[in-house]
Amino acid sequence: METTTTPEDTARQTTLVPPRPRTRGGRWIEHWDPEDAGFWQSTGRSVARRNLTFSVLAEFLGFCVWALWSVVVPLLPAAGFDLTLDQQFWLIAVPSLVGATIRIPYTFAVPAFGGRNWTVISSLLLVLPASALAFVVTRPETSFGALLLCAALAGFGGGNFASSMTNISFFFPEAEKGKALGLNAAGGNLGTGVVQMVVPAIIAIGAGVHLERAGLVFVPLALLSAFAAWRWMDNLAGIKADYRSFALATRNPHTWVISFLYIGTFGSFIGYAGAFPTLLKSQFPTAPLGLAFVGALVGALARPLGGMVADRFGGARVTIGSFGLLAVGALAAVEGLRSASFPLFFGAFLVLFTAAGIGNGATYRMIPAVFRAGVSPEALPTARKAAAGCIGIAGAVGAYGGFFIPRGFAMAKDAYGSLVPALLVFVVAYVLMGLTTYAVYQRRGSALASETI
């Protein structure tokens, strides 16, 4: 008896037996469809979570290496280096400048090389700045130019955020993408606080201070990350660099508004995190430098909180509130400097870090809402592409704040002999950013006032 197969039977079989990832040499997955519920439940979720785990590790180490000079710079004078405060702030600022600049190329590297392959490469690249730092910090005769070049190499760590976020975005369905990217970002941001907490203890083990350990400790860790990515991560075939999404984003004025706001939130986090140890050392020499890590740690932990609060009250409202809190924190820091009060100064910076962290999550939460607002169902795919491009651009532009803030402190100290003018300029910037957020996204009568941004 001949058996016939109807289209309904075929569909039923497809539902009951979801396709498994097809792999070829080099751990390339040929079939990947996270939006297929059957595929996702049977195998997709476990593969995606495995890749997320080692992506977080690589990004975490990237942030650690990116922040290494923030720990080392305050200790260089005691190690025999003759550096002015301006030169010290240059060494802190340059890694952020380089890291911000390479974020866009790192974004496109994932489709070009494969997520697993690029994680291996980007992890191995961390060996270079870690080794260079270990070499130069034991040689006080090293020229400032050579020190600056070594500090610039640490910018490789800042690029890891962009490639890691891009890679993980391909693995998860839309319904779980926000949570996955939030975990990935938080894991990376924690690296700044952890390196400022752990490295001072490592370099102080035994007699004397061994600055070279600050770099040497990350050489085996970077190699471990590269091996883990090679062994347990995957490449996704068919992923192409989406230049169109970037082109769409550059033509949308909201991309540049949000990028401006992100300088104030993420830029403040990475800028203050880099400068805080040197600020404590230069302004309160008797204060325990080991407390500097608390600020960056608080800022990193506040980021997911900002996203959750923004989900409930709206990203624009929470972003406005974070700028208000940043302005209050900066004014309190001014009072701490004027009264020479370490507790007030330290507390003010904890407020700054908390506000910056909350603002990070809230501003990122605004992006999909802004690009989705007022869009017809037919145009949603295009809007999502533009939003993805905006995330990449804002992440790169925002990181330049890590350069502007240390350089602002250096210029104020050089011109006025005080850090107060820099903090007052930052207050004005936060007020301007808060007003911009209100005018564009909350003001009654504005184009997006009726939307939940």
Helix/strand layout:
Elements: H1 7-16, E1 23-24, E2 28-29, H2 37-66, H3 68-72, H4 85-101, H5 103-113, H6 115-125, H7 127-136, H8 144-153, H9 155-171, H10 174-203, H11 213-216, H12 218-232, E3 235-236, H13 243-250, H14 253-283, H15 293-313, H16 315-338, H17 342-372, H18 380-399, H19 401-416, H20 420-442
Parallel strand pairs: 2-3
Antiparallel strand pairs: 1-2
Give an account of the 3D structure:
The protein is mainly α. The chain has 2 domains: 26-239, Growth Hormone, Chain: A, CATH 1.20.1250.20; 242-453, MFS general substrate transporter like domains (Growth Hormone, Chain: A, Up-down Bundle). It is 76% helix and 1% strand. It has a 3-stranded mixed β-sheet. Helix 15 (293-313) runs parallel beside helix 17 and helix 16 (315-338) runs antiparallel to helix 20.
What distinguishing features does this structure have?
single chain; 453 residues; mainly alpha; Growth Hormone, Chain: A; 2 domains; 3-stranded mixed sheet; 3 strands; 76% helix; globular; disordered N terminus
Principal-axes shape call: globular
Overall mean pLDDT stands at 90
**Number of helices, counting only DSSP H or I runs of 4 residues or more:** 20
CATH architecture of the largest domain: Up-down Bundle
- Largest sheet, strands/sense/barrel: 3 strands, mixed
**pLDDT < 50 stretches:** 1-19
Beta fraction: under 5%
